[in-house]
Amino acid sequence: MVAFLKYTPNSYTYLMPIRTVHSILDIPIQEGVPGMSLPFLFLQDGELSYLALAWVRNKMLIEGSGTSTLAKAVSAIGRFYDYYQLERNGAPLAADQLRLVLAEFYEARRFGRASLGWDAVKVATAAADVRAVSDFTEWCTNNFGHAPVNPKERVLVEQLNLREQKTIEMKRTSRREWDMLHHLEPASDEAQGIVTRRAFDPARGNRNKAFTDNKHFPPDTVWEVILKTPSLRDKLYLLLLFFGGVRISEPMHLFASDISIQPDGTARVVLGHPQDGSYQWIGRDRKKKVGNRATFLQEKYGLTPRNLLAEKHPLHAGWKGMMADDKKRSESVVHWLREDAGRLFARLHAEYIRTVRSKLPDTHPYYFVNEKEGDSHGQPLKLSNMSKAFNRAAERVSLSPSMAGVNPHGARHFYGFYCASVLRLPIETTQRLMHHASVMSTEIYYALSAEAVRKELLAAQERQALEAPDLLAAPTALSLPA
């Protein structure tokens, strides 16, 4: 798979950042789906990190990690290598010093390090780097006997703080809703009051941070944004974001055949896994074929699933793990927040197919296409172009993309906010609607805003006034004179 051992940066690669001794290149490989590439990590003097390459290969080909996830992970490992070489001078370390260096690396990422040219980053960003380094070094420990950098340890649940204990209980409750083997759960470690976690886990106290009002898109402008958007394609995309709750990249994987109109007039939108989702098509031999989407794309169009393209490829679109509605088929469906949104999508879909999609040659199956005249007309829509279209839509109603919540993911947060604070759905229901793999991802929407708390309190006071005397009314003697 590797035809060389050394790599020397030159003017045709890219400008190396200040204070770094590593570089990363995406290089195509012959294994896996055609068109796949891996991020190769080169150390100082151009030496290839075979350990990092083996780990990345295992993550992609065996565990099914996406290229975007792997690119971030390899970048984190490269930064850790920079820290070790430039701040620690590459000096040999005893086993008991490894965790200390990892903690120092986290602090350098979190608060910045002038000597490396690093700016301060968010807790979540620094913690993600620590997790990537921890996963990589654990894999090296398990496969090559290296000393563990951040080993896992077993602790009692009662030693955790109340929030962590509550989260564990919520996970156990949620599991009973879908796991057919939940009757075996009492024998698990968690049921016995034991959990396993990293010895150094800096994000532990921040995973359930409170949901803030300004994180979601302004509710009073949602319909206006959609109605003032002139493009049929963009209207459909916005409806999926706001009223379907999909992530920004998920519509980029939709096939034209994934949308159908149901008897009640609403649209049924299938979200199939880009690689593993079941699919049925007519092969070159005119016979019906059943397989997965990766096979269909390769056999009929010679294409690679977009989540497997290199992160810098213009057609790359990520795919985050989700709770599938149909695990056997590896697919889910969009759950419309409002039925009228589902019916509007159906009407616009029919018009889009008639006036745009059906007029294009059959060179790919993707639903959303480039409408601009030129060489790329009719080609799969780029995620970057859709982000720009979202920003233009916001600006039409006098909103700036710099405002909190005015971004594509803010639309998904609007969906979660509406489920939790307007419809007041149970958290388990919202988890299924949003296809969250973990209930912890849903929990942020159930931290009520100050305004919602105030309204609830006033409503409760009004009910109490009608139902019973006010037991806490101030005595007349304490009343202030007029």
TrEMBL record:
Domain of life: Bacteria
GO terms for biological process, alphabetical: DNA integration; DNA recombination
Keywords linked to the UniProt accession: DNA integration, DNA recombination
InterPro entries hit by this protein: DNA_brk_join_enz, Integrase-like_cat_sf, Integrase_catalytic, Tyrosine_recombinase_XerCD
Lineage: Bacteria, Pseudomonadati, Pseudomonadota, Betaproteobacteria, Burkholderiales
CDD domains in UniProt: DNA_BRE_C
Residues of the Tyr recombinase domain: 212-458
PROSITE patterns noted in UniProt: TYR_RECOMBINASE
UniProt GO MF annotations: DNA binding
Keyword Calcium part of the UniProt annotation: no
Identification of the protein by name: Tyr recombinase domain-containing protein
